[in-house]
Amino acid sequence: MLYFLDNKCISVMIKWVILMNLQELLLNAQKAYKNKQLHLALNYYLEAEKIINHSQSLLIDIALIYDELGDYENAKRYYHKVLDYDVNNPIAYYGLATIFDNMKQFDEAIAYYKEAIRLDEHYYQAHFFLANLYDEQKETMLAIYHYQNVIEQNPTYFYAYLNLGSLYESLNQDELALSLFKKAETLNTENHLLYFNLGVVYRKLNQIELSEENYLKSIELSTKHAFTYLNLAILYKDDKNDLKEAVKVYSMGIRSHPKVAVLYYNRACSYALLEENKKAVDDLVQAISLDASLYDYMKKDEELTYLRKTSIYLQTFVNN
Predict the structure, then answer these.
(1) How far apart are CA 96 and CA 229, in angstroms?
(2) Between 33 and which of 41, 106, 293, 306 could a Cys-Cys bridge form, CB atoms 3.0 to 4.6 Å apart?
């Protein structure tokens, strides 16, 4: 017996096949993205767009991949496609903001972050990156407001506490900064910048042992931050009157950061105070080769007063 399908059944079957193809494309795209195969994921998503071109979530996924690939023009184009369907989509405005942020077009970025927040006042990621921009532009109070908003929306956002604490430290509100850093520590004990900041604020509060402890913890976690070595060495020199330990720390810093001029310069000052004149002059030569502006500073630095009278200094910097 033969069975014939009417048009309604055929239509249902076609839709079912299309749906299966769409689901397969989306699953393949997600798998490729998870495996960091961005171009392959993008191709799957673009094929899926041919089947369903009005899905805002699909358009956002495509925009995000273009953004990750550094193709900002196509990323913007797809975020604008989202806005063509829904002019009040805060994710699209946020996405556009991050693109302009990456492109260093900060006025545009601020405008889009603010629009995302206007549409969704609980969009804490937009608050966070808007705060970062305000911080960079020295709009400190606006940055504080938005970091506080992040914490209200997401009390476990580590970097909001870290950045807000740094702002309060810059305003010399050190006790408040300390409380924020200590809260951050309850959320993350593996961040070297947190312990650097704790070192800074403890020294300002004249808690030298705690400052030293936190600088050492920062270095233990990461050798990537040159100013941790600088600050710790200055602590040994100025607060503990231990020039030899300061020299050791500067030397550790220089091994990790051989192109950072201030490490050579400050080690030169410690060598000069120890009257190790040749080592001091050698470090000054290296520091000035990396940063010529230190030459004029060297000529009036009080810590180099004695060194400037020595024959090796005069032969190196005056008589040549």
Answers:
(1) 39
(2) 41
In this prediction, residue 48 has a pLDDT band, given cuts at 50, 70 and 90, of confident
Answer for the pair 171, 141: CB distance below 8 angstroms, yes or no. no
Quickly state the pLDDT bin for 157 (edges 50, 70, 90). Answer: very high
Residue 43 corresponds to which tokens in the numbers above? Answer: 């191709």
Contact between residue 74 and residue 96 where contact means Cβ atoms under 8 Å apart: no
Pairwise CA distance, residues 80 & 175, whole Å? 46
Examine the pLDDT at 172 and tell me if it is beyond 80.
Answer: yes
Sign, CA dihedral 290-296-302-307, equals positive
Whole-angstrom Cα Rg for the chain: 29
How far apart CA 53 and CA 146 sit, in angstroms, is: 36
Name the nearest CA neighbour of 65 among 33, 99, 96. Answer: 33
Cα–Cα distance for residue pair 263/251, rounded to 1 Å = 8
Q: 298: which residues sit within 8 A by CB, 6+ positions away?
A: 265, 284, 288, 304, 317
Q: Can you tell me the distance from the alpha carbon of 120 to that of 130, in angstroms, rounded to the nearest whole number?
A: 14
Q: pLDDT category, 25, cuts 50, 70, 90?
A: confident
Percentage, residues of the chain above pLDDT 70:
93
Which residue carries 């042992």 as its tokens? 209
Convert the chain into a string of H (helix), E (strand) and C (coil).
Answer: CCCCCCHHHHHHHHHHHHHHHHHHHHHHHHHHHHCCCHHHHHHHHHHHHHHCCCCHHHHHHHHHHHHHCCCHHHHHHHHHHHHHHCCCCHHHHHHHHHHHHHCCCHHHHHHHHHHHHHHCCCCHHHHHHHHHHHHHCCCHHHHHHHHHHHHHHCCCCHHHHHHHHHHHHHCCCHHHHHHHHHHHHHHCCCCHHHHHHHHHHHHHCCCHHHHHHHHHHHHHHCCCCHHHHHHHHHHHHHHCCCHHHHHHHHHHHHHHCCCCHHHHHHHHHHHHHCCCHHHHHHHHHHHHHHCCCHHHHHCCCHHHCCHHHCHHHHHHHHCC
